Amino acid sequence: MHEKTIKRHRKKRSLLKKKKNQTDFTLVAIVVILIVFGIIMIYSSSYYYSIDMYNDSTHYLKKQIVWGVLGIVVMMVVSRIDFHIFNRFALLLYIMSLGFLVLVLLVGKEIKGAKRWLVIGPVNFQPSEFAKLMIIIVIAYVASKMVSHLDKYRLMMLILFIIGIPTALVGATNMSTAIVVFAIGVAILFVAVPKVYKLMLITALPGAVGGVLGILLAGYRADRVKIWLEGPWTDPLGKGYQTIQSLYAIGTGGLFGTGLGQSMQKRGFIPEAHNDIIFSIVCEELGLFGALALIILFILLIWRCMVIASNCSDLNSLLIVVGVMAQIGLQVIINIAVVTNSIPATGMPLPFISYGGSSLLFLMVEIGMVLGIARRSKISKAG
Length: 383
What we know:
Blueprint: H1 2-20, H2 25-54, H3 59-79, H4 84-87, H5 90-107, E1 109-111, E2 114-120, E3 123-125, H6 127-145, H7 153-171, H8 175-192, H9 196-216, H10 219-230, H11 241-253, H12 278-310, H13 315-339, H14 357-375, H15 379-382
Protein name: Stage V sporulation protein E
């Protein structure tokens, strides 16, 4: 009888261990669906632009397929790595990120008046995307290590200073991405600190000052705020042009859209529609229902991350997942708000959907980390 009990116990323990090491296929499925959806919409939105620029309608399609496949491979590889290994290189990652951000200011490739890319061989690399990943790893590690002292103002201010340096460097070229970098760090601290009101007190002033300075020091940002306040129709052929065309696309789509591939706005009216403004093409071709379906996919992605976060085995894991959720959620909100003219125009890619190799690749590294955390947590019991 005793031997049977021991055997049952061993079998149960073996099954639990096996479940604990399973891949979260729900999260994988949501991410793959988003990537495939993005590839389809990139092909549709870039079709005429690709012909005009490269005499090849599949130019951006082929590139994004390569990045998508590479991203999925990277995601699965990273999911097999214990993310705690990255903690050993936290300082190195921080220094590397600052180095890249300084380098892009000095010798970065300038596109449309902004230096945001480093050219490495045939690849255009955005250091700001690396900065997002770095902030998640570094701040989650520091906060989890210092959690028992996070009620002290000095430590919180030191961590905010650590967040503030890359934020300022990113903000020199991209204000919206700087906001995301800063917000990721604050979101992680928000979960970690025992007394949230202290964090709010010391975050409000530097955040507000940084935002105002970012607008004042770059004239074009002030112009965007002005055109947003006055309305894009005050300058329909200039600064308000893209916003107006985006709103036309959304309005034309109605409930069910004009049909996949049937957008008129992508035919030269919206410049580079496959980039940050791609959500307007989704609305035009797939209508309100298509746009809602995409938003629901993002909600499901955030929900799945929340499930994983609630079953994390340690604080460091939890803060990593919180950082990833904050990044994806903020980028989705900012992108859709810009497209619908709810906030001033700014450059912000829609995660998994907008064209871009480095942004997708670093995002897949983050998803891989979340999957790895899920494999080592109690997620199998959470469903």
